[in-house]
Design a protein that fits this description.
By secondary structure, the chain is mostly helical. Helices cover 69% and strands 4% of the residues. It is built from 27 helices and six strands. The strands form three sheets. Strands 1-2 form a two-stranded antiparallel sheet. A two-stranded antiparallel sheet has the order 3-4. The chain has a two-stranded antiparallel sheet with strand order 5-6. Strand 3 and strand 4 form a beta hairpin. The radius of gyration is 25 Å and the shape is globular. The two termini are 32 Å apart. The relative contact order is 0.10.
């Protein structure tokens, strides 16, 4: 896994193993594969929340359900906090409508409380933060400034003001991502991920001023609560997120350079120091340890020498590699504690890091599977642990167990995504009829499902050369293409699906005797991703067909 992918999130692809190219039609058939299943269970950076663990985001639907049960039919002032939590969780799911609705309810309930306690700075800070979530940071800023004057020794007041000032600073840096509707597939692949717009110099100066003030707020929070792990982790998250802002500013000022170039020059040591301090204050918090590992990983990879065939641990400085191994051992120790839920979370994070630190060639390592399996035994609700277990079994070639686990996961979560995971397990085990049954069940429910349409085309092309069925496969691919163009929110989101469609379509063209069309599709993919091995194999198979 490349460091570039890890810049925003660790994406662990559930892919079939590559097949060596042969000659003739069978070579193309052997290069068919199910659509890429990406599991976003690593780490990313959020302007408001800082360093976020994707595994926790997967737990959000259960948390929402529990909170909803706790809410009264007629909300009381005591429900304000719950609505704030709900707004935060819906934000994690990118459900803007529900997030705004819950934040507005929190605003109303906090406002009622303030009627009887107008000089309570802590309460006013919560109210201001709810306003920021419901109506924007500009409206919230004066409320939060008043809160810190009322309660200047309350660290949460300073943290909330710092978060809003940071968000305002970030919003001044404009990123434009072209919508995918009606865009040709080749264009979506060719255009750069970052379509960066350069804001005026005075706007950049104002953004920097807000950042400086936000940092002062977080510094004050730490000074007020020197034994509070949360204060350090929030300041560390803020600093870490700002490094990305700085790299973006660098890209704006130097638009001819790759927007990722400045990331390699990021200095993350200050952020890492805060996270390590937070861990020292709360050493049994698996999430804090995992966040610290992510920041250290990013810091280490900016100093790493890129060499083919080496794992991240082998590329980074020895000091960082040893530190990451030590933190992994801390997580494994937490995984042996008596608190089942905390132990399960720790073991899940262990599995994430073992599959990342040691390189994709180690994903099938028994320790990944063992950690994920144990996490599920302790807490079956750990969604990421289930997906990590399937990932490890898939790459390890343990298809019989993979099918059993995928069936159990489908019984637990009866969703199209779960059914597709089972279909993929059947495909990898060469049980193609069972795979097709699962895919057809998805299409009955949702005829426009992107992955199901690609998978259906793959399975048809795999089993048949009848023209009537090949036409159905081609129709499925066109439906998939229209779906991704209609539903993807950005170029980045469209890229992986586009590659799946275009390479499967290239195989289709090659199988029906249209080699020029097939090679044109492969060329479009390689123009975007020159190292795409599957595209190269398809090209070789077409040329020798």
């Amino acid at each position: 896994m490349s460091a570039r992918v890890l810049i925003l999130t660790l994406l662990l692809p559930l892919c079939a193993r590559a097949v060596a190219p042969e000659s003739g039609p069978e070579a193309l058939r052997n290069l068919l594969k199910m659509p890429t299943m990406t599991v976003s269970i690593g780490w990313n950076v959020d302007a408001k929340r800082g360093v976020v663990y994707g595994g926790e985001v997967l737990q959000v639907p259960d948390k929402i359900a529990r909170l909803r049960k706790q809410l009264n039919e007629s909300p009381t002032s005591s429900d304000a906090e719950r609505y704030m939590e709900l707004a935060d969780y819906y934000g994690d799911l990118k459900d803007t409508n529900n997030a705004t609705t819950c934040a507005e309810k929190a605003v109303d309930l906090f406002r009622k409380q303030l009627e009887s306690r107008p000089d309570d700075g802590h309460l006013m800070s919560k109210f201001g933060f709810a306003v920021a979530m419901a109506h924007g940071t500009e409206e919230a800023e004066p409320i939060l400034r008043k809160a810190v004057t009322l309660s200047p020794k309350d660290e949460e007041c300073w943290e909330n003001l710092g978060t809003v000032l940071s968000a305002r600073s970030t919003s001044m840096l404009t990123f434009g991502e072209q919508q995918t509707a009606n865009a040709p597939a080749e264009k979506l692949l060719r255009e750069k991920v970052e379509n960066v717009l350069k804001p005026p110099t005075d706007q950049l100066a104002k953004a920097q001023k807000l950042y400086d003030e936000a940092l002062d707020c977080f510094n004050r929070a730490v000074q007020l609560a020197p034994s509070n792990a949360v204060a350090y982790s929030r300041r560390g998250s803020f600093k870490f997120a700002h490094d990305y802002i700085e790299s973006a500013v660098g890209a704006m000022r130097h638009p001819k350079e790759d927007a990722h170039t400045s990331v390699s020059a990021m200095t993350l040591d200050s952020s890492l120091s805060d996270f390590d301090k937070a861990v020292s204050l709360s050493p049994d918090d698996p999430l804090l340890v995992g966040q610290s590992m992510f920041v250290e990983f990013m810091s280490a990879m900016t100093k790493a020498e890129q060499r083919a065939g080496k794992s991240p641990l082998e590329l980074m400085p020895a000091k960082n590699a040893n530190s990451l191994r030590a933190k992994l051992a801390v997580l494994e120790k937490i995984g042996k504690t008596g608190n089942a839920k905390k132990a399960a979370e720790a073991l899940e994070i262990v599995a994430v890091w073992r599959s990342s630190l040691f390189g994709e060639r180690e994903v099938g390592d028994r320790e990944v599977v063992t950690s994920a399996r144990r996490a599920i035994e302790l807490d079956p609700s750990r969604e990421a642990a289930w997906q990590l277990l399937m990932l490890g079994l898939d790459h390890g070639g343990s298809y019989e167990e993979l099918i059993k686990v995928s069936q159990a996961y489908l019984n637990k979560n009866k969703t199209d995504e779960s059914r597709m995971l089972l279909a993929k397990a059947y495909f990898d085990a060469k049980q193609f009829q069972n795979a097709e049954e699962q895919v057809n069940a998805i299409l009955e429910n949702n005829p426009n499902d992107f992955k199901a349409n690609v998978a259906s085309a793959v399975l048809i092309l795999h089993r048949s050369q009848k023209l009537s069925e090949m036409v159905v496969a081609e129709r499925r691919l066109r439906t998939a293409l229209e779906t991704v163009k209609r539903e993807a929110k950005s170029q980045e989101e469209a890229r992986e699906p586009m590659i799946d469609v275009m390479l499967t379509h290239a195989i289709y063209c090659g199988m029906i005797g249209l080699p020029d069309d097939a090679l044109q599709l492969v060329a479009a993919v390689l123009e975007y991703d020159k190292d795409n091995e599957r595209a190269k194999q398809i090209r070789a198979a077409i040329k020798t067909n």
